[in-house]
Amino acid sequence: MDYATLLQLLDSTLRLATPLLFACIAGLYSERSGVFDIGLEGKMLVAAMCAGAVAFLTGSAWVGLLAGIAGSMAFALIHGITSITFRGNQLIAGVALNFLASGLTVLAAQSLFGQGGRTPPLTGAARFGELTLPFADALRPVPILGPLYAEVISGHSVLVYAAFGVVALTWWVLYRTRFGLRLRAVGENPAAVDTAGISVPRLRFTAVLITGVLCGLAGAYMATALQAGFGKEMTAGRGYIALAALIFAKWRPVAAMWACLLFGFFQALALRLDVVEAVIQVKVPGAFIDALPYILTVLVLAGFVGKAIPPRAGGEPYVKER
Amino acid sequence: MDRLPRWADVALVPLISLVLAAIISALVILAIGQDPWEAITVMVEGALMSPYGWGYTLYYTTSFIFTGLAVTVAFHASLFNIGGEGQAQLGGLGVALACLFIPWPHWTIALLAATLAAAVFGAAWAAIPAYLQAKRGSHIVITTIMFNYIAASLLIFVLGDVLRPLGQMDTATANFPAAAHLPSFNEIPGLSLIFTKGVPANVTFFIALAAAWLVWALLWRTRLGYQIRAFGKSEPAARYAGINATKITMVAMLLSGALAGMMAINNVMGEAERLVGNSASGAGFIGIAVALMGRNHPLGVVLAALLFGFLFQGGAELGLWTKIPIELRTVVQGLVILFTGALDVMVRMGLARVFALFRSPRPAEAA
């Protein structure tokens, strides 16, 4: 494999890792607060549909992004009301929201555009364009690093850079702010947080809504940057890969970034099976590479690669003592 | 909160959840500019008003009974098996191997062998998540989700690269031999008087009913069933009573996987007569809705499976005859899961208030 091919692979790794990263960090907020969320997939899908449809109707990717966030937050709110207010089963609520999203997005897109459940292709300002970072062309002649900067690091949509910004921000929020401390505490021991006079439902609702915002970014990126428009089931299990990455990263933001990059790299490899075959001299079925993130996550869960311990109060509704 | 009377808990709560799901579905249909009344008439007409429609409704019902029972058995051990989809696909692989490579003299023997193969393959796919839950404490929900995706990849590989006959374009196995053909309702003496046109519902329907009875007998009439339910109610209490937690987790999940796998004798052996990609087509997930709607009781599961069979066949008719997309059934499925599984507390709180109205004023000595 030559250097140019490697750069191409890394370039598509960044593109493909971005939705995973947004969704993974989204899940981190919810799960760190003690609300398990297997509905990341559904929220992404709703956001993708809202973003695709509104971007097409208004011709602005930014308005589409806001619509995507709004759609995803509406679903996050239902999840919050179900699992925090009514203390329902968080996992079942997540499953239900995934099905709702899967059906409603097609129904809405079909009734709006009548094109078999997808939005018309987006063009021009309705999509996020690619940014060229400063000096990208000037530095290109520099050996090794020049092409790396010009081909891989430069030339993505603003949302790709935002995703990595979100990782840094999340690290800071989680470990350096009062809110972050409380968030981590409420996922481990809500009774202690309650004793300190802090409202558990309010903290958890905040976390769940942040999850909504970030899933909105993930879905909007899918429909208005990675691809040109919404298509039926376009998230294709990415919400679950993000969930896998979250476990793989043991619910930590920086590790989550590496996990998403790794899983994004697998997705990039699955698109370039010829490269894989040339490098390892064995024909690898694409299906195997598709399954790798899940297999690795099971290995982590099995305790073969470190131990993944979820937030202790995760999955359990908090009942205030009376 | 007052306890609800038993009849309200068993019948009224799911019924109200269903009505809420129906109302919201109607609103969704209105929102996309269609007529809910037209939708329900088309669904009833297409699914229930002809033997032909019933032939399809009961075919779907059969699959959903198996997957619903699978989720039910695991639920009683307080395990949430989302892996029915993957287990059903692996069951399909078991059926395909049994039917393709062994020349069976008669369909009854083939059915027996295929059922066994489906159950073993389904159980095997549930075994690793079960072991990880029992021994390593990894959450069964996460591992079974992962195994669904691994199963999907495995079957893409097997169908594309291993079992596909040379020269065939679509990723599927060869057709099963004629000796492995299961009688459909239109080929069973007696029933063929009613079902005159070819329908996919087949003898597997009766096996599904038998399986429902067996699950009931297992859970409420045997020592093992008692242990499963005790473990599900309270793990520490069960441990204290000398119940082996590892064993119960394993057994409940293996049974669950076997039931989900057995679905394949209906769709793979009974209908398609070859293994195609994505053979379970979501039935594994519908099992979750069926189990929740059926209140985790085999009789409830059979009734809920019938309801979802109607929804599935009716939904297909909607896609054919109206402008309402077939995906409406996914919406209804999601709503039913949401209301019966996650918002049941809300329904119960509401009902308790209504009951309190009728009960008051309460006599003082009762307190």
- Determine Rg of chain A (CA atoms, Å): 20 Å
What summary fits the major beta sheet of chain B? none
Q: Which ranges of chain A are low-confidence, i.e. pLDDT below 50, for 5 or more consecutive residues?
A: none
- According to DSSP, the number of beta strands of chain A is 0
Strand content of chain B: under 5%
Number of domains of chain B: 2
Extended strand count of chain B = 0
Describe the largest sheet of chain A. none
Number of helices, counting only DSSP H or I runs of 4 residues or more of chain B: 16
Number of separate structural domains of chain A: 1
Radius of gyration of chain B: 22 Å
Roughly how many Å apart are the termini of chain B? 15 Å
CATH topology of the largest domain in chain B: ABC transporter involved in vitamin B12 uptake, BtuC
The CATH architecture of the largest domain in chain B comes to Orthogonal Bundle
Helix/strand order of chain A: HHHHHHHHHHHHHH
Shape of chain B: globular
> What is the ordering of alpha helices and beta strands of chain B?
HHHHHHHHHHHHHHHH
In words, what does this structure look like?
The complex is a heterodimer of chains A (322) and B (367). With 322 residues, chain A is mainly α. Chain A has one domain: ABC transporter involved in vitamin B12 uptake, BtuC (Orthogonal Bundle). Chain A contains 14 helices and no strands. In chain A, α2 runs parallel beside α4 and α2 packs across α11. The termini of chain A are far apart. The model of chain A has no long low-confidence stretch (mean pLDDT 90). Chain B has 367 residues and is mainly alpha-helical. Chain B folds into two domains: 70 residues; 264 residues, ABC transporter involved in vitamin B12 uptake, BtuC. Chain B is 73% helix and 0% strand. Chain B contains 16 helices and no strands. In chain B, α1 crosses α16. The longest helix of chain B is centred in the N-terminal third of the chain and has 30 residues. Chain B is globular, with a radius of gyration of 22 Å. The mean pLDDT of chain B is 91.
